[in-house]
Amino acid sequence: MKIALAQINPTVGDVSGSTEKIGRCIVQAERDGAELVVFSELALTGYPPGDLLSESDLVAASVRAVEALADKSRKTAALVGFARPAADTPGAPLENAVALLEGGKVAAVHVKTSPATYDVFDERRYFRPGPPPETMLVAGKRIGVIICEDPPDASRPVTRLRDARAEIIVNVTASPFQLGKGATREELLRRQAISAGAPVVYVNQVGGNDELVFDGASVAISADGTLLGRCKGFDEDLLVVDTDGPPGRCEPTGGELEQLYRALVLGVGDYVRKCGFCSVVLGISGGIDSAVTAALASEALGPQNVLGLVLPSRYSCEGSLTDARELAEALGIKLIEVGIEQIHRAYEDALTGHFPKDAPGVTDENIQARIRGNIIMAFSNALGHLPLATGNKSELATGYCTLYGDMCGGLGVIGDVPKTLVYKLARFINEKTPQRIPESTITKPPSAELKPDQTDQEKLPPYELLDAILTRYVDEAKDFDQIVGEGLDAEQTREVIEMIQASEYKRRQAAPVLKVTSPPFGPARRAPIASRRKAGQ
Amino acid sequence: MKIALAQINPTVGDVSGSTEKIGRCIVQAERDGAELVVFSELALTGYPPGDLLSESDLVAASVRAVEALADKSRKTAALVGFARPAADTPGAPLENAVALLEGGKVAAVHVKTSPATYDVFDERRYFRPGPPPETMLVAGKRIGVIICEDPPDASRPVTRLRDARAEIIVNVTASPFQLGKGATREELLRRQAISAGAPVVYVNQVGGNDELVFDGASVAISADGTLLGRCKGFDEDLLVVDTDGPPGRCEPTGGELEQLYRALVLGVGDYVRKCGFCSVVLGISGGIDSAVTAALASEALGPQNVLGLVLPSRYSCEGSLTDARELAEALGIKLIEVGIEQIHRAYEDALTGHFPKDAPGVTDENIQARIRGNIIMAFSNALGHLPLATGNKSELATGYCTLYGDMCGGLGVIGDVPKTLVYKLARFINEKTPQRIPESTITKPPSAELKPDQTDQEKLPPYELLDAILTRYVDEAKDFDQIVGEGLDAEQTREVIEMIQASEYKRRQAAPVLKVTSPPFGPARRAPIASRRKAGQ
Fold first, then answer.
1. pLDDT at residue A530 is higher than 80
2. Which of B30, B35, B41, B299 is catalytic?
3. Are both B215 and B269 inside the same structural domain?
4. How far apart are CA A35 and CA A102, in angstroms?
5. A68 and A34 belong to one structural domain
6. Which of A16, A42, A52, A57 should be substituted to probe chain B, the one whose Cβ sees the most B Cβ atoms within 10 Å?
């Protein structure tokens, strides 16, 4: 059977935009000779629609769109993801559904069996579970549809569909990118196809929606586990595969760093565009975080749409300014320099006599960071650029950053990338295009430059150690005893865990952060602020 | 049967603190002659524990605490809420459970049947559902336990327990305060008791945990619907009721404004204390929002623990300064004045020539608001006071506020109170204690004073209309057509809805806001930022 994998990039809430995209794909699939075209989960509302689902007009528009699209299915059938009320009564719960459009009408509907409620998923908040999947007859073939149950969760419905003698299994999904997940996912799909004894067609969403980046890379796999086709990663695609024929186009997936790079480029580009902006502004310190963020934004939006601000204080060293200028030149972005010394002095004058002599040094450091934040936001307001935050995951985790200061911005581009991985990403960027990021930016010791001769390692453990603890505590949800049991230093482990717990309040007010590792410091982390916890006690 | 309602105020994550409290209550209940003492839902971990549940040591501590507390139950049985793994295998799902401690051991455990997953509740993220409730024998009586299923959700378990001939129904809950909910809740419990033909003992948590304020007001109701006893609202309490005897102590509930006032006082006090602070700092503008916030904080923490900052700019009128000083005197709080004119000029100098002549006026307005934010945060850093944000719900909804400016703070005290209700609250405060809030603060037209002769109504509809649209769109989840169908102006309805949608990005970075209406702009609202929606189209 010839099936088209239609991998689209919907904007959440934009039902009319998605309807047009889906309509064009059905026409194209028909031209390409496909008997069936498959779209991703909730293709009509975009994924994840969140509380937009509580607006009844969105759900109603999604139901109307399915009916309107049915008309286009006279020659090629389509499986289209949408949301609908479970009944015609007001206040009825919703269903996460896929409609089979065939012969000009809605021929069948399958409702998602197990709405996902973990990590970034909140589906039980909106959707009631549907019955176990049945097969549907499409062009004479028994097709079993499952909605976004990533393997291994899908093992139960797959068994059920095998028992129902499904000839093809279609898995309709919206599976966010996560570093290292792609290969595992494909291997599990391969095993699924073999155990079901039927080809598996897996169609994923692509594009960034707020924190989440969907990588696409939809695949078709034959009953014997052979890859029949793979769509592009990180881009829209329409690929027709023949489930009975030889393998067709298989796009390469790229290595992990390349995937990370493309995920971040797509994420920042889509966030900016889908928020209705076309350009960004960010502070350029001469350090590695702002350099990598600027490089990603330049790739996503074009260097002409990136404005860098270099905002030196009395503590900025000449090398930092040189690095900032060198970076701007290499990327081809505009750089504006605004010194903060006079403003800093005006604050000192205004606050003279109000603070005790032994007031914490962080007071003055934060004043400087917040002056910079204010200037970046003023450029954003005056020129209409979306501001980008440049902090990395290690900083956000430990609270080594200033709320309303360097944390300012509409999006934290590398806020889910640990510092050690930021370095690798910088090297990767320079391998792709030599000398994008100045060598001295990569090699000098990291510093916030908010007091004389400051370095990050005055307050933080070495980043290799910090990131090792961070990954175990946050991503792997290990506790103090488990981490120390793996041989990490007890004192430093306790210190890092306490810093992470104590800075929950900063992350609560942080800009959304592109999720690329798991779980992120974002909506997927729901830790209380006012709480009492003790590491290892 | 003599049952003690133990209404405690736990700190989330503080299992050892809760264990102590629970232990003391069991001893006291035994002294008071109770045969059974009942605690609120998840009393040992505090509610809501959120992602702390993913830290296995917290759950383990909660399980150990139940075993330790069992020893205290030799004379008086206890029902204690805790979290436990569903099985002894690593990675097993969790259960939201209540242990019956009796005769010195854990005699039975009931698991919550329907973990709540709506509004502020996320329980399906952590807990798997338990079986329908059975009765347990306590001191010779058949007791049916249900966990936090607010009526009317509880109708099914109540029917089941009636069929199981439960002699007493115990409802163990953590039900957050919501304006106007209390009376409804009690009426539904009354009907529940009558339909079950058995007394209902309803024990609620009390205290603030981040955004949520639990009001307590636990009650016992006889089989014929008579109120047998009511605990204090907004305070810890231990009340022994006799389910076979005459009504005992019934604390008054107070009117709606009094409840709102007490909820906010408890919420801000607990947030500050549970975060480990004892004092706060906030900007005092002479306007009503900061005046009400300061009055609430003074009541919660004592005026000696509240520092007001008056931060006049070139646009501040003399009347505002007078109002600020009068307020500080009436409340007995310290007021420090720091003019921002010199700092404002330093920004103007630094930015000269960088912006076009027609740059949006909001640029300069925001610079001023952010200068104030920076100063408030500097006082917080230097003196160790927790900063409070003073914005109201109408502002946060429409985005009529400056991110990183007046939105700075650790907690938004009145961020879920619409402006029209802020005025009522101010009047209520002055009725309780005359002249707390200056009359001119209440009567003058509201203004941000960020440009000459500015008033809120230049950019916003009258607050009565704005709040009417806001309540319908956000709290009641009505769409454009429904709101206009109720007779509200179409143009202004569209404008307000668009403002609400467009400022999602600001709320995402707002301080946590005390939830007092429903649903709030806080964790309970999960709307995407980058989306495309059109009001009424």
1. no
2. B41
3. no
4. 10
5. yes
6. A57
Torsion, Cα B41 B43 B48 B54, to 10 degrees, reads -110
End-to-end CA distance of chain B: 60
Residue A42 with chain B: CB contacts under 8 Å: none
On the question of pLDDT at B321 being above 90, the answer is: yes
Q: List, in sequence order, the alpha helices (H) in B74-170.
A: 155-163
Q: Where is B29: in which H helix or E strand?
A: helix B15-31
Task: Label residue B537 by pLDDT band (50, 70, 90).
Answer: very low
Q: Is B348 on the interface with A (CB under 8 A)?
A: no
Say yes or no for a CB contact (<8 Å) between A209 and B530.
yes
What is the rounded (10 degree) CA torsion for A218, A220, A221, A222?
180
Looking at the DSSP bridge assignments, the partners of residue A240 are: A4
Q: Give, in order, the Cα–Cα distances in Å from A104 to each of A15, A84, A172, A275, A410.
A: 20, 20, 21, 35, 44
> Is B41 a known active-site residue?
yes
Full-model pTM: 0.95
A433: tokens are 């295009």
Is residue B326 within 8 Å of B320, Cβ to Cβ? no
Looking at the structure, tell me whether residues B273 and B231 fall in a common domain: no
A window 173-232, beta carbon within 8 A of B: 208-210
Q: Taking CB atoms and an 8 Å cutoff, what residues of chain B touch A359?
A: 381-383
Q: ipTM of this model?
A: 0.94
Last residue in a domain, options B244, B273, B301: B244
Residues A63 and A37 placed together within one structural domain of the fold? yes
Set of chain B residues whose Cβ sits within 8 Å of the Cβ of A123: none
Mean of per-residue pLDDT scores for chain B: 93
The pLDDT score that the predictor gives to residue B419 is 97
Kindly identify which residue of chain A lies nearest to residue B352, measuring between CA atoms. Answer: A338
Do A276 and A323 have their domain in common? yes
Nearest CA-CA distance, residue A27 and chain B, Å? 25
The answer to whether A485 faces chain B, any CB pair under 8 Å, is no
**Same-domain status, A56 and A204:** yes
Q: Determine the residue type at A250.
A: C
Considering the domain boundaries, does residue B467 fall inside one?
no
Residue at A387: amino acid letter: P
Query: How many interchain CB pairs under 8 A, A with B?
Result: 245
Of A245, A268, A285, the residue that ends a domain is A245
* Alpha carbons A466 and A368: distance in angstroms, whole number: 26
Average the pLDDT over each of A450-464, A480-494, B419-433 and give the range with the smallest value.
A450-464
Contact B56 A477 (CB under 8 A): yes
Q: Does any domain span residue A250?
A: no
- Domain with residue B86: its CATH number is 3.60.110.10
State mean pLDDT over B91-116: 93
One domain, residues B168 and B36: yes
Q: Are residues B269 and B137 in the same domain?
A: no
Count of Cβ atoms closer than 10 Å to residue A438 Cβ:
23
d(CA B310, CA B283): 6
Answer whether residue B212 is part of any domain: yes
Q: Which domain holds residue A137?
A: 2-245
Q: For residue range B436-453, what is the model confidence (pLDDT) as tens digits?
A: 999 999 999 999 888 888
**B275 noted as active-site residue:** no
CA distance A110 to B367: 53
pLDDT at A537: 44
Tell me the CATH number at B393.
3.40.50.620
Mutation target for B interface from A19, A42, A51: give the one with most B CBs within 10 A. Answer: A51
A-chain residues near B209 (CB < 8 A): 528, 530-531
**pLDDT over 90 (residue A519):** no
In this complex, the residue of A58, A477, A529 whose CB is nearest that of residue B512 is A529
B351 touches chain A (CB under 8 A): yes
Q: How far is A390 from chain B (nearest CA, A)?
A: 16
| Position A521 in a domain | no
What is the number of structural domains in chain B? Answer: 2
